[in-house]
Amino acid sequence: MSEREPEGRSGGGTDGDGSRKARPDYLRTKSIEQSIKDTEEPEHALTRSLSALDLTVFGVGVIIGTGIFVLTGAVAKEQAGPATALAFVVAGIVCALAALCYAEFASTVPVAGSAYTFSYASLGELPAWTIGWDLVLEFALGTAVVAVGWAGYIRSLLANGGWELPAALSGPDAAHGFSFDVLAAALVLALTVILVLGMKLSARVTSVVVGVKVTVVLLVIIAGSFFIDPANYRPFVPEPKGTISGSGLTAPLIQLMFGYEPTTFGVEGIFTAAAVVFFAFIGFDVVATAAEETRNPQRDMPRGILGSLLICTVLYVAVSIVVTGMQKYTRLTVDAPLADAFKATGHPFYAGVISFGAAVGLTTVCMILLLGQSRVFFAMSRDGLLPRVFSRVHPRFGTPYRSTILLGTLIAVVAGFTSISQLAALVNIGTLFAFAVVALGVLILRGTRPDLPRAFRTPWVPVLPIVSVAASLWLMLNLPAETWLRFAVWMAIGFIVYFLYGRRHSRVTEVGTRTEQGPRGAV
Q1: Basic and acidic residues bias located where (predicted)?
Q2: Which residues form the domain of 261?
Q3: Mean pLDDT, to the nearest integer, of 313-338?
């Protein structure tokens, strides 16, 4: 048996007489060894500069956005009452299932690309392309939507100071007719420059901003705890009050398929609320895209992923307890529940603090989503599935500057012309799809490559990955049918691009190792 047998196993199997069976080229896998070897190419190698603390800060920075100030109260009013805290715990557990799978992959395959790279090693090239294409959309739309939300907060703060931007420069959410959101575009371009200048600089900027953001959250929690009225917690789990339903494409897919209608309030309402607040946790998976730039990924990736998730879960639960204790859940507002709760107790000063914290917080969310997208794009380009010109790293800064500049410019334009409500739901389904694929990949790689050294092992395999897949699919089924339709259209476009370009330019051979030179002299 040759020394390269483990690599060969990733590309195909053998038939009864011991000869290798040919797999379709679109199902070829890329060996773990080759994925790691590719990170050593001088022109395509990223600089390792991140620690476990940096990764944890990235995770907290991207997870905590405006949701902690808005979603907590909105869900309490409409779906779970004071039991919203339990809904966050349930959602945190679902995320932890996926996080444990991500931690194993990120420590075993410390390569840029996150779920895309993991899928290439376990499921095959077409599934990897599918998830990579999905992540490009998810991170791009997420960055654009967050940038638009940030611009809205800044305009509000400017208005409080007596400054107003012209309507033509305020974006479609703030004006009718032609309008370009110059603040949203400027934020994306500024963050693009920071990302090009190096990961350590990005980590320092993120650390400062996340420090301010967490300080604001803790201030709100501590200040709000002095205004809690225990009577507002009764009943902690309100009586059930009917169902959430829609019609046509606005209805949840599970309702159209099986007639099931989620219930509000009561015990079942906690799980309905969990499906909503789950999306407040979106972002911890972005940490995995920085595996290749981590000094000790085998040790630090699990710490960064799981540590950031734990910190954010505690903060979400604390804020939900405070907001439902300050004001009866039936009297909470939907748009700004925490700020209005402080106003209702006679302390409007904290409403301004919350707006400041939200604006600061969205800065890091936007930057880390942009970071994640550029790394997935970089990994796909390095494999030849996208033009390899975008996988060159800067000779001085060690960052994938070409892909970062391209994507940053495109997203700045999208953010300038996009309404915040148009495309946000696609981010949710894309994330859940990635969660399911990663959990499935852990199961497959345990069977096909049991010999791999694993610094972190997902516990309770195969039960935990199976439960993670089931939980992700359940939440996906609770999304509106129109979101599924838009997602299907994007995936169809991705299949066309793959079969017209990616399949023919792939640098991976049928046995899981790359070719020495891409087709047609690609560089």
Answers
A1: 17-40
A2: 50-163+195-239+253-361+424-505
A3: 88
In the numeric block, the tokens 């007719």 are attached to: 177
pLDDT per residue as tens digits for the range 330-351: 998 776 787 788 888 888 788 7
More confident residue, 189 or 522: 189
Tally of structural domains, the chain: 1
Residue 203 CA neighbour count, 13 Å, CB half: 17
Per-residue pLDDT at 45 exceeds 80: no
CA-CA distance, 321 to 53, in Å (whole number)?
28
Whether cis (ω within 30° of 0) applies to the bond prior to 462 is: yes
Q: Which helix (DSSP H) or strand (DSSP E) does residue 232 occupy?
A: none
Q: Are 432 and 157 spatial neighbours (Cβ–Cβ below 8 Å)?
A: no
Bridge partner list, 480: 252
Q: Where are the alpha helices (DSSP H) in 161-236?
A: 182-196, 199-225
Instruction: Convert 395-448 into a string of H (helix), E (strand) and C (coil).
Output: CCCCCCHHHHHHHHHHHHHHHHHCCCCCCHHHHHHHHHHHHHHHHHHHHHHHHH
Give the amino acid at 102: Y
For residue 511, tell me if it sits in a domain: no
| pLDDT above 70 coverage of the chain, percent | 88
DSSP one-letter code for 38? H
Identify the CATH number of the domain in which residue 140 sits. 1.20.1740.10
- Going through 264-318 in order, the beta strands assigned E by DSSP cover none
User: Residue 109 in contact with residue 118, Cβ under 8 Å?
Assistant: yes
Q: Summarize pLDDT for 366-380 with one digit per residue, the tens.
A: 888 898 889 899 999
Structure-token pair, residue 490: 């994007």
